[in-house]
Amino acid sequence: MSDPDLDALREELAEFAEPVRRASTYTPRQERIIAGFEDIERFFETHGRPPRHGEERDIFERLYAVRLDRIRALEDCRALLEPMDRFGLLSATIEDVAYDEADLDSLRDELSGMADRDDITRLRHVRSTEDKRAAEEIAEREVCRDFDRFRKVFSDIERDLRTGVRKSRPFGRETGLQKAEIKAGQAFILGGQIAHVAEVGETIRAPNGETDARLRVIYGNGTESNLLLRSLQRALYKDEAGRWITEPSAGPLFGEAADDEDLESGTIYVLRSKSDHPYIAEHRELIHKIGVTGGSVETRIANSARDPTFLLADVEIAATYQLYNLNRTRLENILHRVFAPARLDLTLTDRFGGNVQPREWFLVPLHVIEEAVERIRNGSIADYVYDRQTATLLQPAD
Questions:
Q1: Shortest CA distance to 383 belongs to which of 367, 397, 364, 365?
Q2: Strands (E), 121-261
Q3: 223-269 pLDDT per residue, tens
């Protein structure tokens, strides 16, 4: 005789049972569409909202926003993904989320005309003949089953590109990067996707007598391909927007590499305060401390809550920039001189009852600080001053 309580328990547990795993019946294109949509879902889980358009947005968010618009516009994509749409991302109408063509144009400019492929992970619908030829060089991609192993690799690369720790440089013969120098661990941008070389197989000899090797390449949209090293090289050459991504140690902001003759090395750091002071809390996104250190930034800020230099509060790191061949003290003086008109005028009371006026905090947007760092790098900073009214760097009138 059946136990009613046990039967009820079985019914409740049934919905938590692990689904039976089945072999994939999706085409390679469908696998790529699903992988691209999963990127958007991960963004939603992290930020609690769909990706949005706008020049002020992170470039990766804007790419996801364009991808989501295209998914919503294509009936076959919607039909494929609707059973998997956990957050209702497909339910918004196209009119509700339609992007501004001006924003899309600016995004294309930022991506330097990155080439498209005929799928939803790219910005445009039409491929040129050259694009198709480049695509033929790539082995057919499939879903990367162990992508979780590489997720941090891609998040680190994206973060390093945003903060300037790494650079993306055009891939061409003038760069001097030859196929023999493509090694495991390197990263490239191919067809608008970050491509990470996870493995390099044994060296083989091609029919023309040149050496070659089979690669395992993981892409940022969760797919992978098993292509030849020479095929990757040719595809990067043919993609006008093909890029190679420098290593953190190979692309410092103020020099190509450190050597024995370097004057000094260190890090420019930009901090935000976590103080609950009413004025600081109100302008938190605008108030930044700009400093230079020869050691670890984390060590430098370890006791910030007790240090008047840090507004007697904990801080968070907004940006860092590695440098070589510059005197740290002189560099910090240059930055403070440029932003002197926006120096924070605030008096705090320390734990001993004394008044302190921190001198290294400024009311300056982060993107203007980034511009100043770049102008220091290219030597043009001497021609500019900060205008507080317009929040921009301007060349003073003669």
A1: 397
A2: 142-143, 168-170, 187-190, 193-205, 211-219, 223-225, 243-245
A3: 998 888 888 888 888 777 788 887 764 434 444 444 443 445 678 89
Q: How far is CA 358 from each of CA 1, 200, 226, 307, 350, rounded to the nearest angstrom?
A: 80, 52, 56, 10, 11
Q: Does domain 126-251 have CATH number 2.30.30.30?
A: yes
CA atoms within 13 A on the CB side of 160: 22
Whole-angstrom distance, CA of residue 398 vs CA of residue 25: 70
Q: How far is CA 228 from the centre of its chain?
A: 27
- Both tokens assigned to 288: 């930044």
Task: From residue 326, give the alpha-carbon distance in Å to each of 292, 298, 330, 331, 376.
Answer: 11, 22, 8, 7, 10
Please give the Cα distance from 196 to 144 (Å, whole number): 12
Estimate to the nearest angstrom the gap between the alpha carbon of 121 and the chain centroid.
16
The dihedral built from the CA positions of residue 333, 336, 341 and 344, taken in this order, carries a sign that is: negative
Amino acid identity, residue 392? T
pTM given for the model: 0.38
Q: What is the mean pLDDT of the chain?
A: 75
Q: How far apart are CA 110 and CA 25, in angstroms?
A: 37
Percent of the chain with pLDDT over 70: 71
**Which one, of 156, 229, 228, lies nearest residue 194 by Cα?**
156
The C-alpha torsion from 70 through 76 and 77 to 83, rounded to 10°, is 140
**Each residue of 86-97: b (16+ CB within 10 Å) or e?**
eeebbeeeeeeb
The domains of the chain are located at: 26-110, 126-251, 265-394
Closest CA to 141 of 166, 124, 165, 119: 119
What does pLDDT average to in each consecutive run of 10 residues of the chain (398 residues)? Answer: 57 48 68 87 85 78 86 88 87 46 49 42 43 48 88 87 75 50 83 88 74 89 87 82 71 43 68 92 92 85 84 91 74 86 86 79 92 82 85 79
DSSP state of 228: B
